Amino acid sequence: MIEVQRVSMAYPNGVSALKNINVCIERGEFVFVVGESGAGKSTLIRLMCREFLPTSGSIRVQGRDITRLKRREVPLFRRNVGVVFQDFRLLNNRSVYDNVAFAMQVIGAPGREVRRRVPEALEVVGISHKAKMKPQELSGGEQQRVCLARAIVNQPTLIIADEPTGNLDPKTSTGIMDALKNINIRGTTIVMATHDKDIVDTMRQRVLVLSNGNIVRDEKRGVYCQHAN
Ligand SMILES: Nc1ncnc2c1ncn2[C@@H]1O[C@H](COP(=O)(O)OP(=O)(O)OP(=O)(O)O)[C@@H](O)[C@H]1O
């Protein structure tokens, strides 16, 4: 599903955020990317959804090297990738329903598909009862659910999430994680950067640990800190 090969990333200011990273993620996996602040998690996550290009190396997603995509090919690639970031990036003057529907409309989905799939996506993340509200009328956790619904509505094969539970209380975070796990059980690959030790230790999924731009641990059914307790 994702093959990151010899990827390095230096920002224009000279900071070396990733140093010759190699990672292979199989279809259907659930992968946590953890590590101290500044370790390179967001950089790796954002490279995987082609927000920007690495300084060197290749990133193959579903067989295609996304570092070689032409600018006009990027939107097509993104249709297959659901992206959830901590800053919600919702349209504040539109309803919850419209925010999710918009993700389908921009790719030209027929109206009947939109009317069928938007309620389904809202149901999966447990926010159907707020469909008519505007994002400002919702709590942070509810807004994050809307983002998740928007990310899954086009039935992507891959979801990339950067701190989707950041700033949320533990109960709300658990709700978001349950929704993500449900989506994963249906076959969607999930890659998620997080600082949330409790979530990582509870879920026992694959854990990739970054430190200072290097992958220092890669464990199946891993935990946040190897030597804790
Ligand atoms: N746009 C940028 N320009 C210059 N340097 C950057 C930029 N974005 C990140 N960096 C630097 O790259 C390194 C890795 O940053 P990154 O955001 O990937 O870390 P992170 O592990 O996601 O951290 P955090 O947990 O704090 O979000 C850091 O040293 C950071 O200061």
Number of continuous helical runs: 7
In total, the number of strands is: 10
Q: Which structural class do you get from the secondary structure elements?
A: alpha/beta
Bound molecules: adenosine-5'-triphosphate
Molecular structure report:
Residues 2-229 form the ABC transporter domain. With 229 residues, the chain is an alpha/beta fold. The protein has a domain at 90-155. The chain contains seven helices and ten strands. It has helices at 41-48, 74-79, 96-105, 111-124, 140-152, 170-185, 197-203, and strands at 2-10, 16-25, 30-34, 56-61, 64-65, 81-85, 158-162, 189-193, 206-211, 214-219. The protein has a six-stranded mixed sheet, with helices on both faces. A four-stranded antiparallel sheet has the order 2-1-4-5, covered by helices on one side. Strand 9 (206-211) and strand 10 (214-219) form a beta hairpin. The longest helix has 16 residues, at 170-185. The protein is globular and about 45 Å long. The two termini are 34 Å apart. The mean pLDDT is 92. Bound molecules: adenosine-5'-triphosphate (ATP).
